[in-house]
Design goal:
The chain has 169 residues and is mainly alpha-helical. Helices cover 64% and strands 0% of the residues. It is built from 5 helices and no strands. The protein has helices spanning 21-49, 56-70, 78-97, 108-125, 142-168. Helix 1 (21-49) packs across helix 3 (78-97), helix 1 (21-49) packs antiparallel against helix 5 and helix 4 (108-125) runs antiparallel to helix 5. It is globular.
Length: 169
């Protein structure tokens, strides 16, 4: 079997380090998705069983309604608004948590923890100044602590996924 490349056969795309671009981006995308899914599952699961669980879904619905209204778009209502919000949360959180893959490979854990902490603190302190109100059923400091914990867990899940997928590729 001839494994040499003839001039008619283009080489597979390579980065400067000789790694195929998909191998570079797969861990980044996977880490973002892992972080987003972790936060969403924690939020959705806990709100069904804990009376003072974080209600980032409600804050997200308010933000989506406000944003669409400002753009002159009639926002969806009821279950449709909920589905749009969950989808928007998954996409935005996946993009955010994919930042765990920016920088040196060895810094993934610290970036994941820092990203999660920043997102959690933002989720606690920004809704009121942005005109989104308080979380329903909020019981300080429990609700705030759980909110930060969910986002830190998302950051650490992103970091673990980034490390595992980089090692696998």
């Amino acid at each position: 079997m001839n494994t040499t490349r003839t001039p008619e056969q283009p080489a597979a795309p390579q980065t400067e380090a000789g790694v195929h671009p998909l191998r570079r981006w797969l861990p980044v995308v996977a880490s973002g998705l892992a972080g987003a899914v972790t936060v969403t599952l924690l939020n959705e699961g806990a709100r069904r069983v804990l009376p003072h669980a974080p209600r980032m879904d409600v804050i997200g619905e308010r933000a989506l309604k406000k944003s669409l209204g400002a753009a002159g778009v009639v926002p969806p209502q009821g279950e449709a608004l909920y589905r749009w919000t969950v989808a928007a949360d998954l996409v935005s959180n996946a993009l955010y948590y994919s930042l765990v893959g920016v920088g040196t490979p060895g810094g993934g854990w610290s970036r994941g923890g820092a990203l999660g902490l920043a997102a959690g603190l933002g989720a606690v302190f920004l809704p009121r100044p942005l005109g989104l109100g308080r979380q329903p059923g909020e019981q300080p400091p429990l609700t705030q602590l759980l909110t930060v914990t969910w986002y830190v867990a998302g950051g650490l899940a992103a970091a673990a996924t980034y490390r595992a997928s980089r090692n696998a590729s």
